[in-house]
Amino acid sequence: MPSLIDTLTGTGDTAKMSGAVIASDLILGAKVASGAYLAAALEASTPEVKSLFMNNVTMNVQTHQTLVELSLKKGWLKPYQTPVEQLREAFSYSQKFTRPDA
Fold it and tell me: Which residues of the chain have pLDDT under 70?
């Protein structure tokens, strides 16, 4: 019985999912880090510290944009699908990991 990690890092079709999962996690991480650095910048007590945090916000936003562009190019993100299509695809994807034989 293959594990979730084996399925994600496998070969063939599942190897494509691995890139999508990694990109999705990195996008989320950049988004969360940007929010944290922005909050820290707003609370900073000196202009130097505020500038340091804002530079990190900028870098995280640029990283996020690069990852989103890559995900769109690879077809991992499909923002123009209808909500029904998105739900159908998410459900289909989830079935790969919730099967009794998975």
Answer: 1-17, 100-102
